[in-house]
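subagent[fold] <- orchestrator: predict structure for attached chain, return tokens only, no commentary.
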Amino acid sequence: MAINLDWVTVAAIFLSNIPQGLSSAAGMKKAGRSMGYIFGVWGAISVISAISALLGYTLFSHFSGEVIAATTAVAAGGILATISDTMIPEAFEETHDFAGLITVGGFLVAFVLSKLGET
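subagent[fold] -> orchestrator:
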């Protein structure tokens, strides 16, 4: 079974990681880390992520649709846990009243992208 990964999924993953990456980089900068350190950490994360994605794609291409669906559900739960535990409190601390509006806007963009992907 081939894994169907469309452009909407790739775009959603890319867009969802931008604010978290910026927040983390800003936190490292605020803690006094050098630019070399910050770029080194993010460079290493990028390389490890690319290798992991290739290995995961290769491994999961042999699994059934049910295993892929279960794994996707667990991954989605992890993303929701990260959002609710880390990103929303941090966003509320910075933007206060706009955190909810920004969150809803993000879900709206994801919904629109998913509908564009269906056409």
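orchestrator: received. Logging for downstream: Residues 65-95 form the longest helix (31 residues). The chain has four helices and no strands.
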